[in-house]
Amino acid sequence: MAANNNANLVWSIANILRGTFKPAQYGSVILPFTILRRLDCVLAETKDAVLKEAEAKKNLNIPLDAFLQKASGHTFFNTSLFNFAKLLDDPTNIKANIINYVQGFSENTRDIFERFEFDKSLEKLDNSDLLYHVTKDFAGIDLHPNIISNIEMGLMFEELIRRFAEASNETAGEHFTPREVIQLMVQLLLNYDDDVLTKEGIVRSIYDPTAGTGGMLTVAQEHLHALNPSASLVAYGQEINDESYAICKSDLLIKGQDISKISVGDTLANDQNIGQQFDFMLSNPPFGVEWKKIQPQIQKEHELHGFEGRFGPGLPRVSDGSLLFLLHLIRKMRPAHEGGSRIGIVLNGSPLFTGSAGSGESEIRRYLIENDFVEAIIALPTDMFYNTGIATYVWILSNSKKQKHPERVGKIQLINGVDFFQKMRKSLGSKRKELGPNDIATIVQLYGAFEDDGETSKIFNNQDFGYSTITVERPLKLNFACTPERIQAVLAQKPIEKLADHDKQLLENTLTQLGDHDTKIWKNRDAFSKVLKPALADAGLKLGAPVMKAVLAGLSERDETADICTSPKGAPEADTDLRDTENVPLGENIKDYFASEVIPHVPDAWIDETKTKVGYEIPFTRHFYKYVAPRSLDEIDADLNKLIAEITTLLAEVEK
What we know:
Elements: H1 2-13, H2 27-42, H3 47-56, H4 65-72, H5 84-88, H6 94-103, H7 107-115, H8 118-127, H9 131-139, H10 150-167, H11 169-175, H12 179-190, H13 194-198, E1 203-208, H14 215-227, E2 232-239, H15 242-254, E3 262-264, E4 280-283, H16 295-305, H17 322-331, E5 342-348, H18 350-353, H19 360-370, E6 374-379, E7 392-398, H20 401-404, E8 411-416, E9 422-428, E10 431-434, H21 437-449, E11 457-461, E12 466-473, E13 478-480, H22 484-491, H23 494-497, H24 501-517, H25 525-538, H26 545-554, E14 556-558, E15 580-585, H27 590-597, E16 606-607, E17 613-616, H28 620-623, H29 633-655
Parallel strand pairs: 1-2, 1-4, 2-3, 4-5, 6-8
Antiparallel strand pairs: 5-7, 6-7, 8-11, 9-10, 12-15, 12-16, 12-17, 13-14
């Protein structure tokens, strides 16, 4: 309640901005000012000590950060002479003085204001004669730690983040994951790790490669603290959007936490945590966003480093890079003998099934499943996110099933949570539903129970999602004749068009004479070739293999009654037009399947074993599909008759 009251107080300052700023822009003013005021209050008691230390050592020509941090009593400091009170003493120069004040912060804190592009907001406020008023209003709010604790301040700041994200529905989904979805993911990750829940003073790491505004890191820390107050969760994160990065970093700073492990940049193209491994990892990567801009870097790592890099298993199509983030996380897992790692990631439906056997997506799924990383996949209700109403899924992965949950070895649990939701009173963009506390508890309980109830929770063997794609070939059967129509088909072939005009005319004349001399239809290619080749030679035509192939193609037609075309070694040639594929479950013998499912329909077919590929897909919806019988004809007729009667009545009233 206190957090909401404080947030309301700060939120009310946004009323001054109406007209000058759009609602979606309020956050770029209010959030950095909130941070500035909090830091002003936090550093107030040691401000003089920091200034004195800076003055005493200014001529030593050595880095002073360590000294000034010690003097401030925090991991950050400010060497400017200004504070909020002094800023208000000089209204005329307030913009320049605020800039001086911000520049006085240590680099790790100054970075926050730079990423907010705070100077641009100050310029706009100053030009609109609003800067002094906003500064004065913030100066009137006491955010000293003795008044508002780190925990209360953190909750207040989160509430402000949420409000500003909701005020900007068109972009909220890019950087803000609904809190209840994060709570579900965090509980699925942490609630079943006995060490984290029970060990005194345990320290673990958590990492989010798409940190956004830091919601996942924050909720995870809060949840662990509630379960085990003595445990610590060190937060690592990387975020590509400058403003979201600034919010994430400032959120941790306001709570008195280490901000040195939050970095900015493109996680896939410029990993800021190379070589790092983490205990827990959470992510909500962007859905269906192409990675074409960074394709050269990703392709290079894939080709040069293979499985020693992040993308060894394969690369997805360039239109959706979400699976790249999953591979990135897998690479950062601790070895199982060191305790292993657990991952929770939100993905859309595409990574479950997109791509045939041998494709990048299928190879990534194959790698994940054959290495037994996947513990469970939970289908969320639709309309859960701010900028999309599509179906989404939470994947839970780990590399320590054998050590910590042996019952899950070789198994994957699918949980259908699409019906666990409550409707929101007011829609926020595309978000119309939310997970209530009972919904979260139910899903977490289903996961923990690890039972197949045949309805909402189903357990499968890893192999159940694999299949072999076999290529079914049928023999090529052609007849040949030198009819006028087929001769024209020969002349239309590309290799023939490249011949000299003299040779083309000679070829046409030779084929015409051959047709006039012998009007029969040949049903054996070798026999026809023995007639055709001497005729061409007698005409003085020396045709290369590609041209000869084109001549035969133009003079032929498919004919089931013809003899099978064979290679020089006598092997039957495949008819590419009749080529087909079949997906055979991994648990089924391919030869047995072929004998029972294919041969009865096409007795002359065979398998080209050189083309066989193993693939994996997770057809989630199919496994939970329930057949609904169509209505009876009598019921439909009754409804139609009722409607006709209503229409007739209405028409009668109109006619009156």
